[in-house]
Amino acid sequence: xxxxxxxxxxxxxxxxxxxxxxxxxxxxxxxxxxxxxxxxxxxxxxxxxxxxxxxxxxxxxxxxxxxxxxxxxxxxxxxxxxxxxxxxxxxxxxxxxxxxxxxxxxxxxxxxxxxxxxxxxxxxxxxxxxxxxxxxxxxxxxxxxxxxxxxxxxxxxxxxxxxxxxxxxxxxxxxxxxxxxxxxxxxxxxxxxxxxxxxxxxxxxxxxxxxxxxxxxxxxxxxxxxxxxxxxxxxxxxxxxxxxxxxxxxxxxxxxxxxxxxxxxxxxxxxxxxxxxxxxxxxxxxxxxxxxxxxxxxxxxxxxxxxxxxxxxxxxxxxxxxxxxxxx
Length: 328
Known about the structure:
alpha+beta; Beta-Lactamase; 2 domains; six-stranded antiparallel beta sheet; 11 strands; elongated
């Protein structure tokens, strides 16, 4: 084995800033090492949202989209080797009758397989010692990175993952035909729940709240536990739609949900339109935060859009001193 070559590859891997960079990096490096003609990443989506279920054949449980293009979902079940890769969580190497090779390499977390790197053509994995040694290293490092970016209680992404993921996402989201929004959701009267029922039941609410987010938002939307009882969602709608629609659906689902022992819990939501790739992420968060503060101070259990509040004169467009107060 060329130890120096493997060391260089590993050092390049360790230089990556976030887990979302690993799939693309792995595809490029393995393509170069194996001399392959084609390499791409397939993002794996669990089929949970109803709108996604209706778009795919009955019985589908997983779907994949090439290079994270969630508009081109196709069911996993149609590809036997892809199914095997995801189920067994190990690389699958195959060679066609014409001698061409195909490598399917899963990138998994403790919970699920999130990406499959597909390498077509080139040398067999076993024939390249550097590539063969690199594959398990990449898999373990990816899992460690995701673990550091995940909230241990709710299993949503955490604040550490939020800023780099949104900053990198801004560069590619606005190139499509969809409108993107950032929403902040704050559970109403959460401190009272902790004071009355204890932190154990408070944690139970957070877990069920995160499950509601996964069930209500689309599978490809980005969901985060921002801290405490604050959660963030970054999602897209068709240009003809409006960001308030999925947020109202989530607010209603929360209000109608029977939380263990607590019963009814409501949520206040503020959101802002992501209309420029140059807008600082901190500005987007501040706009959503102002809108959620307005929602909490004007009755709670409601959805407010920052741009609408500014247009109506309810907000001045800059952070007021009042927004620094804490509402429970």
